[in-house]
Amino acid sequence: APQRTQVEGLQPQVEPDPMVRPLDVRLTPPSLEDPMADDRNLWGTLKRAHGVAPGTIDLAVQQTFTSRLRDLDWKASVVLRESEIVALDAPSTRWIGLAVDIGTTKIAVYLVDLETGEIAASSGLMNPQISYGEDVVSRIYTAGQSAENAAKLQSLVVDALNASVAALCAEIGSDPAHVADAVIVGNTVIHHLFLGLSVHQLGVIPYVPAVRAEVDVKARDLGLKMAPGGYVHMLPNIAGYVGADHVAMLLATETDEREGVTLAIDIGTNTEICLNCRGTMKSVSCASGPAFEGAHIRFGMRAARGAIERVRMSDGRLEIQTIGGSAPVGICGSGLLDAIAQMRQNGVIDPSGRMLDHALVRRLDERREFVLVERPGEDDITISQKDVRELQAAKTAIRLGIQALIEDAGIAEADIDRVIIAGAFGTFIDVQSAIGIGMLPPLPLERFQQVGNAAGTGARLALISRDKRRAALEIAAKDGYIELATIPDFNEKFAAASSLAW
């Protein structure tokens, strides 16, 4: 079934100042009296009309611009990136940009009008790499098996992006050849796979990235179809499991600029958390796993029509809400979180997560399961003890990450002024439920802000603003990193964090 994906997020307004700029020109055709070469003619016209000093012309543009200028009767729109001509087409062409957030499970794609900075079209899709593993560690292993596997993981994403961009361009009456610039973000493993970099070292201690710096590469070198000389810009990484998507999230939420104490969490299959404690920033990565996506849950499913997304329990009676309001067919991550919070609140499970005797709990082959929906003629939708443990493990990773940051900063959770929750799963969760099972700190609800796909917003900001691109570099440079495996008394703290109470 089609999955609900998250492309919406913050919409901060910035003055557009992209890396590329289109300039309309009208050239004088060469003649026997003045047989000027086409490149000198073009640069001379740019100098006279726009004050642009001669630079370079991308090879792919050089291979076509001579015939194209004649087809256009010597009138054209020229796209400059710094001093390089990266595209040329008809006058008044609408040049657009591409911003992409490649998540472990989902991909958000945005076409952006480079003149206004507004989103022209967007879509969400599944990351096709998921067929080779639901988490990044599985993909590290797969890529390490052979060069062919690594190339396949890269081409899967590129092919999906090319198809999505083509469809979005058709939607707005444009063409992929008019995509003049791109900014793409993802976690460090996704970043490396997309660029064809080694990921082996990310899977072994001390988990170091091959590249931390920002990367600029020709789109065609990656197989991405856009303007002939167009570039893909990748924001910098921070550590082996804190990547460019985290930098983009921090950029979009302005976490680095906030006073007091701010906790920013991007919840997903891999969850990144940053604490800005009065100007000092540190981040951790938490392997929260795929349970939030409904994976490894008996009746789990992704956020598609018919998935239970809300659960409430009162006086022993259950009320459920499904996506699309249709008959329930399974339960997605937000519904599972709700259900377990309600089970804890109503004494169905104890703080350790153990399922107790209850009117809605039944035994089946010596196993206990909580009945959510009875379906005559079909299997009832239930939550098993194993399902509780799966979500408990995911929430434990996040709680442990938050506690590690709090202890490192020498503060208490009550000192946190605001909690920013980003990511597709973070958009749809009930914050009170997350507090109820000890995943989020017990703070007043007004301190929480759910911001949608902030990583995608950060990619868009870096696409349309040079200042924001520079700000991303500054964020990556000053954000510290804590490796959870190195914190003192890790095993004891992990066990304590598994409690379904804060």
What do these coordinates show?
The protein has 502 residues and is α/β, with parallel strands linked by helices. Helix content is 33%, strand content 24%. The protein is built from 14 helices and 22 strands. The protein has helices at 38-50, 59-71, 136-145, 147-171, 188-195, 219-222, 244-253, 333-345, 385-409, 424-428, 431-436, 454-464, 466-478, 490-497; strands spanning 20-26, 56-57, 75-81, 84-89, 96-102, 106-113, 119-126, 179-186, 215-218, 231-234, 261-266, 271-277, 280-286, 307-314, 317-322, 330-331, 361-364, 367-373, 381-384, 418-422, 448-450, 480-481. The strands form 5 sheets. Strands 7-6-5-8-10-9 form a 6-stranded mixed β-sheet, with helices on both faces. Strand 5 and strand 6 (106-113) form a beta hairpin. The longest helix is centred in the first third of the chain and has 25 residues, at 147-171.
Short structural summary:
The chain has 502 residues and is an alpha/beta fold. The protein contains 14 helices and 22 strands.
Relevant terms:
alpha/beta, six-stranded mixed sheet, single chain, 22 strands, 502 residues
